[in-house]
Design a protein that fits this description.
alpha/beta
């Protein structure tokens, strides 16, 4: 039995009353959904795809991002948002416009109106995909999107900067590399972000005392890297995983790469050559 002078084993109180996770039916959303639930009293999850049954401490809401009224209702009452929603692959411009550009505008307008304190915005390494793989770049370097998807994420980063400068709405833009259970090819030796490190990065972005408007890369502690992620240190993010244990198998799988291939020359990989549509 616990006494007045002995600690109990009770779990710590959640840091948030209500969080919103958009894109909760996607790959990263499914990975984060149970992990973010530990941070809040209620986790509101949203997508246009099937979400499954809501958990005991969840609210499941279907809300197309291009529907301003639906997004306004979705954001009501949440303290912070992890925005993974939208189209996450390269493709024709019109669907990306609706989901990733109109959709992110609707989200930020709703957050402003409801007084949401902070957004963690899933940007992408494809914002800078036309830098070469023999370069190391920083978040402050000029954007060089590698396609329609990268363009939409560049818009989202600029929009979030505007909402911070004009309205004080804090955002951490995560230029996510390649987040999977393990890296799939040699490119991912540089871009891989483990699910555990993804959780660490998102939690740090939600809980750091002051973030202002921050742009950081979503990457594990990989030996090969194209990105200087010093700007993530103020968040308290310290990656603990690395792609290095997978190197031998991946290099055996892809023993030779053609340096003249744009997908090998540029950081965006195959995205740099997709289209026109």
């Amino acid at each position: 039995m616990a006494t007045a002078s002995s600690p109990t084993s009770a779990a710590p109180a959640p840091r948030f009353d209500r969080l919103l996770l958009t894109g909760a039916a996607g790959g990263l959303g499914r990975a984060l959904r149970p992990r973010l639930g530990r941070l809040c009293r209620v986790l509101r999850v949203s997508d246009i795809a099937a979400l499954g049954a809501a958990g005991a401490s969840e609210e499941a809401v279907v809300a197309p991002l291009q529907d301003a009224a639906a997004v306004h209702a979705l954001v009501a009452g949440v303290e912070a948002i992890v925005h993974l929603g939208g189209i996450s692959v390269e493709g024709p411009f019109e669907p990306i416009l609706e989901a990733n550009i109109v959709g992110v505008w609707n989200l930020y307008e709703a957050a402003r109106k409801h007084g949401t304190r902070r957004i963690v915005f899933a940007s992408s390494n494809h914002v800078t995909g036309f830098y070469r793989q023999d370069e190391v770049i920083r978040p402050g370097d000029p954007m060089r999107p590698d396609g329609h998807y990268g363009l939409s994420k560049a818009f989202g980063e600029n929009l979030s900067r505007f909402y911070f400068d004009r309205y004080g709405l804090e955002t951490v833009c995560l230029r996510i590399g390649s987040s999977f259970p393990e890296p799939k090819d040699r490119r991912m030796l540089a871009t891989w972000l483990s699910y555990d490190d993804l959780e660490r990065l998102v939690v740090a972005s939600l809980t750091a005392p002051v973030v202002g408007h921050s742009v950081v890369y979503g990457m594990s502690d990989n030996t090969t890297t194209w990105w200087d992620n010093t700007s993530a240190r103020h968040l308290g993010y310290r990656p603990q995983d690395s792609s290095e244990p997978f190197r031998a198998a991946l290099e055996a799988k892809q023993p030779e790469l053609d340096p003249g291939d744009p997908s090998v020359r540029f950081q965006g990989g195959g995205f740099v050559t997709r289209g026109p549509y």
